[in-house]
User: Which sequence fits this backbone?
């Protein structure tokens, strides 16, 4: 049995390896062995209670070490996200300790994998969703390694990482047990090495044709670099809009079909029915009239009036008895075309939405206005496109870009380009905005769609269908990117079938739980 000090050293080693492997880092390969210290600790003979406390410490350090930048935006939110995530990540390990007592080592090891994948899937889909640290995200900066994500999504990455860690654990344990060198090399090191090589080789096998179809059509992406803490001041709205138009006008040409502005670039909050007459937005409509072939896609904050009817669960009540929703939205503007709105669907818990089971906290949070929710949301992935448009855009707003299956819904609905509108300036120049950029590379691979990403303060970028960043603007710079974006209409396996690996893991988890209780009852 290990003493407390070596045990804590092992759990901290696991956390540090996970931190070192996370984007944006040069030490991505560390993810292949990051769980080994905890697996060694779990099988060292220490008590279950002490082991779970070690796991909690490890998960706490990992969460704090990779998402500490949340503190720059919201202190309370950062503490809540780190603590809740830590508790949730400990649960699969608790399940593993239970399975160890009633099953063989192999079954208990695989139960740990299935429990973890089930946790990740739930964390992608429940009301307190915060899947930033989904294991498969760790490989985002290495697109050449993960071209097979077009079949599996990040779930395949999480599964592959767990298998590599199990193989590495068996190798390390065999070395510790001082087995003959032949056994170590042939039965442990060789399978581990071949497995990693097979994963990389699989990416080479499914890598799409790198040739870019010829096109004269291009998209302009604008990065206005406006202080996010000042952009909602009405007095500066006129200057902000002027800057957006100037940057756009400096980059467009006769082949430009679309201009992308970042999240909440149109920051004067108004009713959706009143946008066309809003005095601040008249320069935008005038510029659109001068360039009738352009489609402008921008982030915008809006209200929608429901009158006396509470039409949605998130509707707020005004003083005169009228209900309305506030939306973090995207808008499509084109001369002689009806305005199109898409209201953000995947909302940030605590900042943009409040889970129903926490509705009693609503009066304490100013943005919730005493309602059971924050912003309203869309019930579907709406695509901005006219029938004859060259580009059919998925207006993905900020946080939504970390959801692979939801992004696939845009593509199934006809999107041939992914347009990500975001404002990462709340976090400052920290790893947060680089991690967010890296996750956009995953969406490109999964859907085989080009990504055009407009970020208020950076990093705005063009990403090809292989997940490679082709062009980008630097952080904290005002700029515009123009690029000829090719399109395709093919649907990947992942786009069609979504998170099938996660769903299979959830089913296997239920079967394992049933098996556990069966063994308990039989005894």
Assistant:
């Amino acid at each position: 049995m290990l003493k407390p000090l070596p045990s804590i050293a092992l759990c901290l080693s696991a956390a540090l390896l996970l931190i070192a492997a996370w984007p944006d880092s040069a030490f991505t390969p560390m993810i292949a062995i990051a769980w080994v210290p905890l697996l060694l600790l779990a099988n060292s003979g220490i008590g279950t209670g002490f082991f779970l406390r070690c796991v909690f410490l490890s998960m706490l350090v990992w969460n704090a070490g990779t998402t500490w930048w949340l503190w720059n935006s919201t202190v309370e939110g950062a503490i809540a996200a780190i603590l809740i995530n830590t508790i949730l990540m400990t649960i699969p390990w608790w399940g593993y300790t239970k399975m160890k007592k009633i099953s063989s080592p192999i079954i208990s090891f695989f139960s740990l994998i299935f429990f973890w994948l089930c946790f990740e899937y739930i964390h992608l889909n429940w009301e307190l969703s915060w899947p930033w640290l989904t294991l498969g995200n760790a490989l985002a900066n290495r697109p050449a390694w993960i071209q097979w994500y077009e079949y599996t999504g990040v779930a395949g990455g999480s599964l592959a990482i767990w298998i590599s860690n199990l193989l590495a654990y068996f190798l390390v344990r065999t070395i510790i047990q001082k087995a003959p060198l032949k056994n170590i090399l042939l039965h442990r090191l060789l399978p581990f090495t071949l497995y990693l090589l097979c994963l990389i080789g699989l990416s080479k096998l499914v890598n799409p044709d790198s040739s870019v179809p010829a096109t004269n059509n291009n998209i302009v992406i604008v990065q206005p670099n406006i202080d996010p803490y000042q952009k909602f001041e009405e007095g500066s709205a006129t200057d902000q809009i002027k800057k957006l138009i100037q940057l756009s006008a400096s980059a467009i040409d006769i082949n430009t079909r679309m201009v992308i502005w970042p999240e909440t670039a149109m920051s004067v909050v108004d009713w959706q029915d009143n946008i066309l007459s809003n005095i601040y937005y008249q320069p935008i409509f005038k510029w659109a009239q001068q360039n009738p072939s352009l489609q402008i896609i921008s982030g915008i904050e809006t209200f929608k009036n429901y009158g006396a009817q509470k039409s949605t669960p998130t509707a707020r009540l005004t003083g005169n008895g009228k209900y309305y929703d506030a939306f973090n939205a995207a808008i499509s503007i084109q001369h002689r075309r009806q305005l199109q709105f898409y209201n953000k669907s995947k909302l940030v818990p605590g900042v943009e939405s409040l889970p129903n089971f926490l509705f009693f906290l609503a009066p304490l949070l100013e943005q919730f206005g005493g309602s059971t929710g924050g912003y309203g949301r869309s019930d579907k992935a709406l695509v901005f496109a006219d029938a004859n448009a060259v580009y059919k855009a998925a207006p993905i707003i900020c946080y939504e870009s970390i959801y692979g299956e939801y992004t696939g819904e845009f593509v199934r609905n006809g999107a041939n380009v992914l347009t990500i509108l975001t404002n990462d300036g709340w976090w400052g120049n920290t790893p947060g905005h680089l991690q967010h950029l890296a996750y956009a590379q995953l969406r490109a691979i999964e859907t085989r769609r080009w990504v055009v990403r407009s970020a208020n303060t950076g990093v705005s970028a063009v990403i090809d269908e292989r997940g490679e960043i082709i062009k980008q603007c630097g952080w904290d710079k005002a700029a515009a990117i123009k690029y000829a974006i090719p399109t395709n209409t093919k649907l990947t396996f992942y786009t069609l079938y979504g998170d099938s690996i996660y769903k299979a893991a959830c089913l296997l988890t239920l079967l394992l739980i049933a098996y556990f209780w069966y063994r308990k009852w039989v005894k």
